[in-house]
């Protein structure tokens, strides 16, 4: 790795670092992180900070409340967000900006582009963007759910060179280091597959965060496919950040793909949610290898869900195999109408006049899923 090549990085800090005792924010573990950010900026590297911690920071203000109640958690997030931002702000002698997002913001293409423009403008003017999920207003339908995956989406939106995810251990081990003394740290991961996910296990029980090692692997997979080198490091030790500054790897380095996905295709595959499904005959899978063949209504078995023109849809086979996510040029209502026509000539003529159902430049292949 060569830190000197980094023009822009995203660093993700979890709740356990922000509020280790679940009694409001603490700067104990944040000082070394802040110093790392300051040194990166001084060296000309732009930084975006994705910070959890609003719920953990606000929990002390609701001692008598049931912490699992959704309304209470939203209230804790609202109260704790102010303290979290104030804590970070005290550690810097340059301005910072708060960006609160939901998955609804990221999966809408127009809002996603707006987020990119805002981040770029802040960075170009020397302002540190501090991003968090907007837990106060988000719902199950609109939330990302964990800031590991959010940090990868933000890194992609920001066109970052590196994503640094802080953990409570040194990186990814071949087995759980808390349970196995012979667990070995993987310093380098070239390809993320099921064997890597198997090492990750599930979420950590009893912690203050919402993710575990698995969500960090998910985030790494999103990031590396966009050409972003990703590191999982121990955020509780200053040594990790000193090593990064020296160009050394203190944890697990996930290698970026040499040929990144195009920005709009990466957004469609890893950020945008499918608003509906189109079930097709299996022969459509073969047409994916061609630049000229298109999905036609004659290949459609069923249309599920409601979607509008421009929405992302999932195209899959009847056996459940996912083929592509794509931008739909037809609404579900219109697509249902033409797919149910007995007169194939009518459907063919209609599609010739109005254009393809999905366009090749707006397709994200899901063959690996």
UniProtKB/TrEMBL annotation:
Subcellular location field: Cytoplasm
One cellular component term from this protein's GO annotations in UniProt: cytosol
Keyword terms of this UniProt record: Amino-acid biosynthesis, ATP-binding, Cytoplasm, Kinase, Nucleotide-binding, Proline biosynthesis, Transferase
GO MF entry, a single one: ATP binding
InterPro entries membership: AceGlu_kinase-like_sf (IPR036393), Asp/Glu/Uridylate_kinase (IPR001048), G5K_ProB (IPR041739), Glu/AcGlu_kinase (IPR001057), Glu_5kinase (IPR011529), Glu_5kinase/COase_Synthase (IPR005715), Glutamate_5-kinase_CS (IPR019797), PUA-like_sf (IPR015947)
Pathway listed: Amino-acid biosynthesis; L-proline biosynthesis; L-glutamate 5-semialdehyde from L-glutamate: step 1/2
Reaction catalysis annotation: L-glutamate + ATP = L-glutamyl 5-phosphate + ADP
Principal location: cytoplasm
EC nos: 2.7.2.11
Domain (Aspartate/glutamate/uridylate kinase) ranges: 7-234
Binding site for substrate: 52, 135, 147
Pfam families with a match to the protein in the record: AA_kinase
EC category name: transferase
GO terms of biological process kind: L-proline biosynthetic process
Binding sites annotated in the UniProt record for ATP: 12, 167-168, 210-216
Family from the record: Belongs to the glutamate 5-kinase family.
PANTHER family registered for this protein in UniProt: GLUTAMATE 5-KINASE, ISOPENTENYL PHOSPHATE KINASE
Annotated function: Catalyzes the transfer of a phosphate group to glutamate to form L-glutamate 5-phosphate.
Protein name per UniProt: Glutamate 5-kinase
Gene source species: Alteromonas pelagimontana
Lineage: Bacteria, Pseudomonadati, Pseudomonadota, Gammaproteobacteria, Alteromonadales
């Amino acid at each position: 790795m060569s830190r000197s090549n980094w023009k822009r990085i995203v660093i993700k800090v979890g709740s356990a670092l922000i509020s280790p005792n679940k009694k409001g924010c603490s700067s104990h573990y944040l000082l070394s992180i802040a110093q790392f950010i300051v040194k990166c900026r001084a060296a000309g590297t732009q930084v975006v900070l994705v910070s959890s911690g609003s719920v953990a920071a606000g929990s002390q203000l609701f001692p008598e409340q049931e912490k699992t109640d959704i309304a209470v958690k939203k209230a804790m997030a609202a109260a704790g967000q102010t303290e979290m931002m104030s804590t970070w702000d005290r550690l810097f002698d340059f301005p910072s900006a708060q960006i609160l997002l939901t998955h609804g913001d990221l999966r809408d293409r127009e809002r996603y582009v707006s987020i990119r423009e805002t981040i770029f403008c802040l960075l170009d003017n020397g302002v540190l963007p501090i991003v968090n999920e907007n837990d106060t207003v988000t719902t199950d339908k609109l939330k990302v759910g964990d800031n590991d995956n959010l940090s990868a989406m933000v890194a992609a939106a920001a066109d970052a060179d590196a994503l640094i995810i802080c953990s409570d251990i040194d990186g990814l081990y071949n087995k759980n280091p808390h349970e196995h003394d012979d667990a070995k740290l993987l310093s380098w991961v070239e390809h993320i597959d099921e064997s890597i996910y198997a090492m990750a296990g599930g979420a950590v029980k009893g912690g203050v965060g919402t993710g575990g090692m698995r969500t960090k692997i998910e985030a790494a997979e999103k990031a590396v496919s966009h050409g972003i080198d990703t590191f999982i490091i121990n955020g509780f030790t200053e040594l990790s950040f000193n090593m990064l500054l020296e160009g050394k790897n203190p944890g697990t380095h996930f290698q970026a793909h040499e040929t990144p996905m195009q920005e709009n295709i990466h957004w469609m595959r890893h950020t945008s949610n499918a608003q509906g499904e189109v079930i097709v005959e299996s022969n459509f899978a073969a047409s994916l290898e061609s630049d000229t063949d298109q999905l036609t209504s004659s290949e459609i078995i069923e249309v599920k869900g409601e979607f509008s023109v421009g929405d992302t849809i999932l195209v899959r086979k009847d056996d459940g195999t996912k083929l592509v996510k794509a931008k739909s040029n037809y609404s579900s209502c219109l697509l249902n109408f033409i797919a149910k026509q007995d007169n194939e000539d009518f459907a063919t003529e209609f599609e010739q006049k109005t254009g393809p159902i999905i366009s090749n430049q707006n397709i994200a292949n899901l063959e690996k899923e």
